[in-house]
Amino acid sequence: MKALIISADNFEDMELLFPYYRLKEESVSVDVASMNKGRIKGKHGYEAEANKTLKEVNPDDYDILILPGGKAPEAVRKEERAVEIARHFFKKNKPVAAICHGPQTLITAGLLKGRHATCYKSVAQEMKEAGALYEDKEVVVDGNLITSRQPSDLPAFLRELVKALRRI
Amino acid sequence: MKALIISADNFEDMELLFPYYRLKEESVSVDVASMNKGRIKGKHGYEAEANKTLKEVNPDDYDILILPGGKAPEAVRKEERAVEIARHFFKKNKPVAAICHGPQTLITAGLLKGRHATCYKSVAQEMKEAGALYEDKEVVVDGNLITSRQPSDLPAFLRELVKALRRI
Q1: Which of B13, B25, B46, B154 has the most A C-beta neighbours within 10 Å, making it the best mutation to test the interface with A?
Q2: Nearest 5°: phi and psi at A66?
Q3: C-alpha distances out from residue B136 to B19, B68, B142, B151, B162, Å
Q4: Which pTM does this prediction carry?
Q5: In chain B, which residues have their Cβ closer than 8 Å to the Cβ of A156?
Q6: What is the structure's pLDDT at B100?
Q7: Chain A, nearest residue to B157 by Cα
Q8: Rounded-to-integer distance, Cα B93 and Cα B78, Å
Q9: Element (H or E) spanning A3, and its range?
Q10: Which residues of A are identified as catalytic?
Q11: Which of A96, B17, B19, B67 has a Cα-to-Cα distance from A15 of 20 to 30 A?
Protein backbone atom coordinates (compact mmCIF):
# COMPACT_ATOMS: atom_id res chain seq x y z
CA MET A 1 0.00 0.00 0.00
CA LYS A 2 1.46 3.34 -1.04
CA ALA A 3 0.17 6.91 -0.67
CA LEU A 4 1.20 10.10 -2.46
CA ILE A 5 0.88 13.57 -0.93
CA ILE A 6 1.38 16.51 -3.30
CA SER A 7 2.13 19.85 -1.67
CA ALA A 8 4.54 22.78 -1.53
CA ASP A 9 5.68 25.57 0.79
CA ASN A 10 2.98 27.23 2.89
CA PHE A 11 0.99 24.02 3.28
CA GLU A 12 -1.55 23.90 6.08
CA ASP A 13 0.61 22.05 8.61
CA MET A 14 -2.05 19.88 10.23
CA GLU A 15 -3.67 18.98 6.89
CA LEU A 16 -0.40 17.57 5.58
CA LEU A 17 1.07 16.10 8.78
CA PHE A 18 -2.07 14.54 10.19
CA PRO A 19 -2.68 12.32 7.10
CA TYR A 20 1.09 11.70 6.86
CA TYR A 21 1.35 10.44 10.45
CA ARG A 22 -2.01 8.70 10.30
CA LEU A 23 -1.01 6.68 7.23
CA LYS A 24 2.29 5.79 8.85
CA GLU A 25 0.29 4.59 11.86
CA GLU A 26 -1.46 2.23 9.39
CA SER A 27 2.00 1.13 8.11
CA VAL A 28 1.23 2.69 4.72
CA SER A 29 4.30 3.94 2.86
CA VAL A 30 3.95 7.68 2.10
CA ASP A 31 5.82 9.78 -0.47
CA VAL A 32 5.62 13.57 -0.46
CA ALA A 33 6.09 15.16 -3.89
CA SER A 34 6.69 18.83 -4.67
CA MET A 35 8.29 20.97 -7.36
CA ASN A 36 11.70 20.30 -5.84
CA LYS A 37 13.07 17.72 -3.45
CA GLY A 38 13.86 18.72 0.12
CA ARG A 39 12.11 20.41 2.98
CA ILE A 40 8.88 22.25 2.44
CA LYS A 41 7.59 24.55 5.13
CA GLY A 42 4.10 24.87 6.56
CA LYS A 43 2.26 28.08 7.42
CA HIS A 44 2.77 27.31 11.13
CA GLY A 45 6.46 26.50 10.79
CA TYR A 46 6.36 22.70 10.68
CA GLU A 47 8.42 21.06 7.95
CA ALA A 48 7.89 18.04 5.75
CA GLU A 49 10.43 16.29 3.57
CA ALA A 50 9.50 16.18 -0.13
CA ASN A 51 11.26 12.97 -1.13
CA LYS A 52 10.12 13.10 -4.79
CA THR A 53 9.84 15.78 -7.42
CA LEU A 54 6.54 15.90 -9.34
CA LYS A 55 8.49 14.82 -12.45
CA GLU A 56 9.81 11.73 -10.69
CA VAL A 57 6.36 10.53 -9.63
CA ASN A 58 4.97 7.53 -11.46
CA PRO A 59 1.31 7.62 -10.41
CA ASP A 60 0.93 3.90 -11.19
CA ASP A 61 3.02 3.27 -8.05
CA TYR A 62 0.38 4.73 -5.72
CA ASP A 63 -2.96 3.61 -4.31
CA ILE A 64 -4.20 6.98 -3.06
CA LEU A 65 -3.54 10.68 -3.66
CA ILE A 66 -3.81 13.26 -0.87
CA LEU A 67 -4.02 17.01 -1.53
CA PRO A 68 -3.66 19.09 1.66
CA GLY A 69 -4.59 22.77 1.80
CA GLY A 70 -2.99 26.02 2.86
CA LYS A 71 -1.46 28.27 0.24
CA ALA A 72 0.42 25.38 -1.40
CA PRO A 73 -2.39 24.39 -3.84
CA GLU A 74 -2.21 27.87 -5.44
CA ALA A 75 1.30 26.90 -6.61
CA VAL A 76 0.63 23.18 -7.13
CA ARG A 77 -2.31 23.78 -9.51
CA LYS A 78 0.02 25.68 -11.87
CA GLU A 79 2.20 22.57 -12.29
CA GLU A 80 1.04 20.64 -15.35
CA ARG A 81 2.57 17.44 -13.91
CA ALA A 82 0.47 17.74 -10.71
CA VAL A 83 -2.67 18.17 -12.80
CA GLU A 84 -1.77 15.12 -14.93
CA ILE A 85 -1.16 13.01 -11.81
CA ALA A 86 -4.59 13.98 -10.43
CA ARG A 87 -6.21 13.00 -13.75
CA HIS A 88 -4.46 9.62 -13.62
CA PHE A 89 -6.05 8.82 -10.23
CA PHE A 90 -9.53 9.70 -11.48
CA LYS A 91 -9.05 7.75 -14.72
CA LYS A 92 -8.04 4.66 -12.72
CA ASN A 93 -10.78 5.31 -10.14
CA LYS A 94 -8.22 5.36 -7.29
CA PRO A 95 -9.06 7.34 -4.12
CA VAL A 96 -8.25 11.06 -4.09
CA ALA A 97 -8.59 12.90 -0.77
CA ALA A 98 -8.47 16.71 -0.89
CA ILE A 99 -9.04 19.16 1.96
CA CYS A 100 -9.46 22.95 2.30
CA HIS A 101 -7.70 24.57 -0.70
CA GLY A 102 -6.50 21.12 -1.86
CA PRO A 103 -9.42 20.67 -4.31
CA GLN A 104 -8.13 23.67 -6.34
CA THR A 105 -5.78 21.31 -8.17
CA LEU A 106 -8.80 19.14 -9.09
CA ILE A 107 -10.68 22.24 -10.31
CA THR A 108 -7.77 23.14 -12.59
CA ALA A 109 -7.72 19.51 -13.81
CA GLY A 110 -11.42 19.81 -14.72
CA LEU A 111 -12.25 16.77 -12.60
CA LEU A 112 -15.12 18.05 -10.46
CA LYS A 113 -17.92 18.56 -12.99
CA GLY A 114 -21.05 16.87 -11.64
CA ARG A 115 -19.21 15.54 -8.58
CA HIS A 116 -20.35 16.02 -4.99
CA ALA A 117 -17.55 17.78 -3.11
CA THR A 118 -16.63 20.32 -0.45
CA CYS A 119 -13.70 22.67 0.24
CA TYR A 120 -12.67 25.70 2.31
CA LYS A 121 -15.42 28.32 2.29
CA SER A 122 -13.41 30.82 0.24
CA VAL A 123 -12.99 28.21 -2.51
CA ALA A 124 -16.70 27.27 -2.65
CA GLN A 125 -17.64 29.74 -5.40
CA GLU A 126 -14.82 28.58 -7.64
CA MET A 127 -15.77 24.97 -7.00
CA LYS A 128 -19.39 25.60 -7.99
CA GLU A 129 -18.30 27.41 -11.14
CA ALA A 130 -16.24 24.33 -12.03
CA GLY A 131 -19.52 22.37 -12.07
CA ALA A 132 -19.16 20.60 -8.72
CA LEU A 133 -22.18 19.90 -6.53
CA TYR A 134 -20.82 21.77 -3.51
CA GLU A 135 -21.94 20.72 -0.02
CA ASP A 136 -21.08 22.47 3.25
CA LYS A 137 -20.29 19.27 5.21
CA GLU A 138 -17.29 18.02 7.22
CA VAL A 139 -16.66 15.33 4.63
CA VAL A 140 -18.21 14.50 1.26
CA VAL A 141 -17.58 11.15 -0.39
CA ASP A 142 -18.49 10.70 -4.06
CA GLY A 143 -17.04 7.54 -5.55
CA ASN A 144 -13.24 7.81 -5.46
CA LEU A 145 -13.36 11.43 -4.26
CA ILE A 146 -13.13 12.39 -0.57
CA THR A 147 -13.22 16.11 0.30
CA SER A 148 -13.28 18.16 3.51
CA ARG A 149 -13.37 21.85 4.41
CA GLN A 150 -10.77 22.64 7.09
CA PRO A 151 -8.45 21.26 9.82
CA SER A 152 -11.31 20.67 12.29
CA ASP A 153 -12.79 18.23 9.73
CA LEU A 154 -9.67 16.03 9.85
CA PRO A 155 -11.26 13.32 12.05
CA ALA A 156 -14.06 12.77 9.49
CA PHE A 157 -11.67 13.18 6.54
CA LEU A 158 -9.29 10.52 7.88
CA ARG A 159 -12.14 8.19 8.85
CA GLU A 160 -13.25 8.12 5.20
CA LEU A 161 -9.70 8.05 3.84
CA VAL A 162 -8.76 5.00 5.93
CA LYS A 163 -12.08 3.35 5.00
CA ALA A 164 -11.23 3.84 1.31
CA LEU A 165 -7.77 2.33 1.85
CA ARG A 166 -9.26 -0.72 3.52
CA ARG A 167 -11.44 -1.32 0.45
CA ILE A 168 -8.36 -1.56 -1.80
CA MET B 1 -15.39 5.76 25.82
CA LYS B 2 -13.94 9.02 27.09
CA ALA B 3 -10.45 10.51 26.91
CA LEU B 4 -8.85 13.31 28.93
CA ILE B 5 -6.05 15.50 27.63
CA ILE B 6 -4.29 17.71 30.21
CA SER B 7 -2.29 20.61 28.82
CA ALA B 8 -1.77 24.37 28.93
CA ASP B 9 -0.41 27.26 26.85
CA ASN B 10 2.69 26.52 24.80
CA PHE B 11 1.67 22.92 24.14
CA GLU B 12 3.40 21.13 21.26
CA ASP B 13 0.67 21.64 18.67
CA MET B 14 0.92 18.34 16.85
CA GLU B 15 1.23 16.31 20.06
CA LEU B 16 -2.04 17.69 21.37
CA LEU B 17 -4.02 17.99 18.13
CA PHE B 18 -3.00 14.71 16.55
CA PRO B 19 -4.31 12.55 19.45
CA TYR B 20 -7.32 14.90 19.76
CA TYR B 21 -8.32 14.47 16.10
CA ARG B 22 -7.32 10.80 16.05
CA LEU B 23 -9.58 9.99 19.00
CA LYS B 24 -12.44 11.92 17.41
CA GLU B 25 -11.87 9.84 14.29
CA GLU B 26 -12.49 6.80 16.54
CA SER B 27 -15.66 8.50 17.83
CA VAL B 28 -14.12 8.78 21.31
CA SER B 29 -15.32 11.77 23.33
CA VAL B 30 -12.37 13.99 24.32
CA ASP B 31 -12.15 16.61 27.06
CA VAL B 32 -9.23 19.02 27.29
CA ALA B 33 -8.48 20.22 30.82
CA SER B 34 -6.23 23.08 31.87
CA MET B 35 -5.80 25.52 34.75
CA ASN B 36 -8.56 27.68 33.28
CA LYS B 37 -11.33 27.11 30.77
CA GLY B 38 -11.02 28.60 27.30
CA ARG B 39 -8.51 28.63 24.51
CA ILE B 40 -4.98 27.46 25.07
CA LYS B 41 -2.33 28.23 22.50
CA GLY B 42 0.30 25.96 21.00
CA LYS B 43 3.95 26.85 20.31
CA HIS B 44 3.14 26.94 16.57
CA GLY B 45 0.03 29.09 16.96
CA TYR B 46 -2.71 26.46 16.81
CA GLU B 47 -5.37 26.68 19.48
CA ALA B 48 -7.31 24.12 21.47
CA GLU B 49 -10.39 24.66 23.61
CA ALA B 50 -9.94 23.67 27.25
CA ASN B 51 -13.53 22.72 28.10
CA LYS B 52 -12.75 21.73 31.71
CA THR B 53 -10.65 23.16 34.51
CA LEU B 54 -8.41 20.70 36.33
CA LYS B 55 -10.59 21.20 39.42
CA GLU B 56 -13.72 20.20 37.51
CA VAL B 57 -12.24 16.92 36.28
CA ASN B 58 -13.56 13.75 37.86
CA PRO B 59 -10.97 11.20 36.73
CA ASP B 60 -13.48 8.35 37.25
CA ASP B 61 -15.27 9.67 34.14
CA TYR B 62 -12.33 8.87 31.82
CA ASP B 63 -10.85 5.74 30.26
CA ILE B 64 -7.51 7.18 29.18
CA LEU B 65 -5.25 10.14 30.05
CA ILE B 66 -3.09 11.86 27.42
CA LEU B 67 -0.21 14.19 28.33
CA PRO B 68 1.16 16.07 25.28
CA GLY B 69 4.50 17.88 25.37
CA GLY B 70 5.84 21.32 24.58
CA LYS B 71 6.39 23.79 27.39
CA ALA B 72 2.95 23.12 28.88
CA PRO B 73 4.04 20.22 31.17
CA GLU B 74 6.42 22.59 32.99
CA ALA B 75 3.31 24.44 34.20
CA VAL B 76 1.00 21.41 34.45
CA ARG B 77 3.37 19.50 36.79
CA LYS B 78 3.12 22.34 39.32
CA GLU B 79 -0.64 21.82 39.61
CA GLU B 80 -1.37 19.45 42.49
CA ARG B 81 -4.70 18.52 40.89
CA ALA B 82 -2.98 17.39 37.66
CA VAL B 83 -0.60 15.23 39.68
CA GLU B 84 -3.51 13.71 41.64
CA ILE B 85 -5.37 12.93 38.41
CA ALA B 86 -2.31 11.15 36.99
CA ARG B 87 -2.02 9.08 40.20
CA HIS B 88 -5.69 8.09 39.89
CA PHE B 89 -5.11 6.61 36.41
CA PHE B 90 -2.14 4.57 37.62
CA LYS B 91 -3.99 3.37 40.73
CA LYS B 92 -6.90 2.18 38.57
CA ASN B 93 -4.49 0.76 35.95
CA LYS B 94 -6.10 2.87 33.21
CA PRO B 95 -3.98 3.80 30.14
CA VAL B 96 -1.80 6.90 30.37
CA ALA B 97 -0.10 8.11 27.16
CA ALA B 98 2.61 10.76 27.54
CA ILE B 99 4.88 12.18 24.84
CA CYS B 100 7.94 14.44 24.75
CA HIS B 101 7.86 16.65 27.90
CA GLY B 102 4.48 15.13 28.86
CA PRO B 103 6.06 12.52 31.20
CA GLN B 104 7.33 15.35 33.44
CA THR B 105 3.95 15.36 35.20
CA LEU B 106 4.37 11.62 35.87
CA ILE B 107 7.88 12.25 37.24
CA THR B 108 6.49 14.84 39.67
CA ALA B 109 3.78 12.36 40.64
CA GLY B 110 6.47 9.77 41.47
CA LEU B 111 4.85 7.26 39.13
CA LEU B 112 7.81 6.16 36.99
CA LYS B 113 10.00 4.27 39.48
CA GLY B 114 10.90 0.91 37.93
CA ARG B 115 8.77 1.56 34.83
CA HIS B 116 10.00 1.29 31.25
CA ALA B 117 9.47 4.65 29.56
CA THR B 118 10.79 7.21 27.11
CA CYS B 119 10.56 11.01 26.66
CA TYR B 120 12.15 13.94 24.83
CA LYS B 121 15.94 13.67 24.94
CA SER B 122 16.36 16.73 27.20
CA VAL B 123 14.06 15.09 29.79
CA ALA B 124 15.89 11.72 29.76
CA GLN B 125 18.25 12.51 32.63
CA GLU B 126 15.43 13.66 34.89
CA MET B 127 13.43 10.56 33.97
CA LYS B 128 16.32 8.25 34.90
CA GLU B 129 16.83 10.09 38.20
CA ALA B 130 13.14 9.45 38.95
CA GLY B 131 13.90 5.72 38.77
CA ALA B 132 12.46 5.01 35.32
CA LEU B 133 14.06 2.46 32.99
CA TYR B 134 14.60 4.92 30.14
CA GLU B 135 14.70 3.60 26.57
CA ASP B 136 15.49 5.64 23.44
CA LYS B 137 12.67 4.19 21.29
CA GLU B 138 9.78 5.68 19.30
CA VAL B 139 7.30 4.15 21.71
CA VAL B 140 7.64 2.24 24.97
CA VAL B 141 4.69 0.34 26.43
CA ASP B 142 4.87 -0.86 30.02
CA GLY B 143 1.51 -2.03 31.35
CA ASN B 144 -0.85 0.95 31.38
CA LEU B 145 1.93 3.37 30.43
CA ILE B 146 2.60 4.44 26.81
CA THR B 147 5.41 6.94 26.17
CA SER B 148 7.05 8.47 23.11
CA ARG B 149 9.85 10.95 22.46
CA GLN B 150 8.75 13.57 19.91
CA PRO B 151 6.25 14.54 17.16
CA SER B 152 7.82 12.19 14.58
CA ASP B 153 6.96 9.28 16.92
CA LEU B 154 3.23 10.10 16.76
CA PRO B 155 2.37 7.24 14.34
CA ALA B 156 3.79 4.65 16.77
CA PHE B 157 2.39 6.49 19.81
CA LEU B 158 -1.14 6.53 18.38
CA ARG B 159 -0.89 2.95 17.16
CA GLU B 160 -0.29 1.83 20.76
CA LEU B 161 -2.79 4.30 22.22
CA VAL B 162 -5.59 3.06 19.96
CA LYS B 163 -4.59 -0.54 20.69
CA ALA B 164 -4.92 0.17 24.43
CA LEU B 165 -8.35 1.72 23.90
CA ARG B 166 -9.53 -1.34 21.98
CA ARG B 167 -8.58 -3.53 24.95
CA ILE B 168 -10.91 -1.57 27.27
Answers
A1: B25
A2: -120, 130
A3: 21, 18, 14, 14, 22
A4: 0.96
A5: 25
A6: 98
A7: A25
A8: 23
A9: strand A2-6
A10: 100-101
A11: B67
Closest residue in B to A15 (Cα–Cα): B18
Which of the residues B15, B22, B29, B153 would you substitute to probe the A interface, choosing the one with the greatest number of A C-beta atoms within 10 Å? B22
Sign of CA dihedral B74, B79, B83, B89: negative
Closest CA to B95 of B14, B11, B17, B19: B19
CATH code for the domain in which residue A99 is found: 3.40.50.880
Strand partners, A66: A5, A97
Nearest-CA distance A130 → chain B (Å): 30
Q: How many domains does chain A have?
A: 1
Q: Write the residue in B18, B44, B45 that is nearest to A21 by C-beta.
A: B18
The per-residue pLDDT for A168 is 86
Give me the domain span that covers residue B97. 2-167
- Closest CA of chain A from B121, distance in Å: 19
| ipTM for this model | 0.94
Rounded to a whole number, what is the distance in Å from the CA of A129 to chain B's nearest CA? 32
The DSSP secondary structure of A73-139, one letter per residue, reads HHHHTT-HHHHHHHHHHHHTT--EEEETTTTHHHHHTT--TT-EE---GGGHHHHHHTT-EE--SS-
pLDDT for position B168: 86
Chain A / chain B CB contacts < 8 angstroms: 50
Share the mean pLDDT of chain B. Answer: 98
Looking at residues A65-93, what average pLDDT do you find?
98
Q: What are φ and ψ of residue B150, in 5° steps? A: -165, 170
Residues in chain B with CB shorter than 8 Å from the CB of A155 are 21-22, 24-25
Mean pLDDT of A62-86: 98
Residue A115's pLDDT band (cuts 50, 70, 90): very high
